[in-house]
Amino acid sequence: MKILLTGKNGQVGWELNRSLSKLATVFAMDRDQMDLSKPETLGPVIQNIRPDIIINAAAYTAVDKAESESELAMIVNGIAPGVIAEEARKTGAGMIHYSTDYVFDGKTTSPYKEEDLTCPLNVYGKTKLAGEKAVIQVGIPHFILRTGWVYSLRGSNFLLTLQKLAQTKKQIKVVDDQTGSPTWARTIAEGTTQILEQCLKGTTTSQVFTGSGVFHMSCGGETSWFDFANKILELSNLSKDTEVVPIPTIEYPTPAVRPRYSPLSNRKLKQVFHHEMPQWQDALQECLNSALK
Ligand SMILES: NC(=O)c1ccc[n+]([C@@H]2O[C@H](COP(=O)([O-])OP(=O)(O)OC[C@H]3O[C@@H](n4cnc5c(N)ncnc54)[C@H](OP(=O)(O)O)[C@@H]3O)[C@@H](O)[C@H]2O)c1
Q: I need a labelling partner for 279 at 20 to 30 A (CA). Which of 92, 184, 203, 241 fits?
């Protein structure tokens, strides 16, 4: 079994490279080996490896920058996934692709289900939705795993930014009117590996991907950025010298508009794969503990 993984140095990609190796031979690619901004170059790489499964963890994830680089974001997030899916079709491979809670507009009060109406508010969300549709349209066996508020001990994310700020600032202002589910990248990788492991009981790729479709995969529970920030400082033993001050989004304007409410319901993941994602507080604690190991 050969798995081709893109975005191996990203938060999720790095964790996937680690957890998938127990299942299959992983061909892990970085941006130099597979550049999604040049979709026309992807085919030969894929056909050379002829993987059984392609996992696309590469993406243009700079939510604010995407507002001014919409063309590039659309190529990487909206067009390249369809090209990869088309190449997967040629080799008979299935595909796992990641998407985002930002495909929703946040105008609700209970966790989003897979079939809820999408209506992205920003360029990043629009390009990710285009990528979902491009993969689905090719008609290969696939899972699209939507997640949100991803953090890890690598890369650039809210957890690391906050810990860094707390080293020098006595006060940090954080928005308290956006709600989501912080999700440790490792829980996404382990969830992906576990569902693949279950599916691999099938013998052909189409059996592997029985039940193709969109699944939500984020940590359980919900919180605001403000409460998330407080929890990070508390668990990092940084709350003594730094105060987190709640502010409304209007006082922290960003180029990209974000949904006010974007937790995802994991019910389908649990029903189909019996996979339970951890609560966000437990995953955060475990992530921080892992730094000490
Ligand atoms: N981060 C979040 O909060 C979040 C939330 C919801 C959904 N997601 C989705 O989850 C998935 C994984 O995200 P993540 O958090 O792991 O993102 P990440 O840490 O930003 O990693 C993205 C990876 O994509 C690579 N990449 C960017 N442009 C590329 C290009 N043109 N060609 C090839 N590779 C390229 C990056 O390469 P370099 O290492 O060279 O920069 C990086 O390795 C993505 O589909 C993302 O949309 C993320």
A: 241
Counting Cβ atoms within 10 Å, is residue 233 exposed (0-12), middle (13-18) or buried (19+)?
buried
Phi, psi of 225 (to 5 degrees): -60, -35
Question: One of 124, 151, 252, 261 is an active-site residue; which one?
Answer: 124
Atom of ligand 1 nearest to the CA of 38: 31
Task: Identify the residue whose C-alpha is closest to ligand 1 atom 8.
Answer: 100
pLDDT, mean of residues 93-121: 97
Is the per-residue pLDDT at 272 higher than 90? no
Place of tokens 């290969």: 140
Report the predicted TM-score, pTM, of the whole model to 2 decimal places: 0.95
The residue among 141, 148, 75 whose CA lies nearest residue 111 is: 148
Active site residue 124: yes
How remote is the CA of residue 99 from the centroid of ligand 1, in Å?
10
Other beta carbons less than 10 A from residue 209's beta carbon? 21
Q: 172 or 293, which is more confident?
A: 172
Q: Is residue 204's pLDDT more than 50?
A: no
Residue owning tokens 């029985």: 210
Convert the pLDDT of each residue in 37-91 to its tens digit. 999 999 999 999 999 999 999 999 999 999 999 999 999 999 999 999 999 999 9
144: its two tokens: 């699209």
Strands 53-56, 2-6: parallel, antiparallel or unpaired by DSSP?
Answer: parallel
Token pair of 227 as six digits: 């409460």
User: Is residue 56 within 6 Å of ligand 1 at its C-beta?
Assistant: no
Structural domains of the chain ordered from first start: 2-156+182-220+262-279 (3.40.50.720)
Q: How far is the CA of 202 from the centre of ligand 1 (A)?
A: 30
* Average pLDDT over every residue of 253-274: 94
Separation of alpha carbons 45 and 14, rounded Å: 20
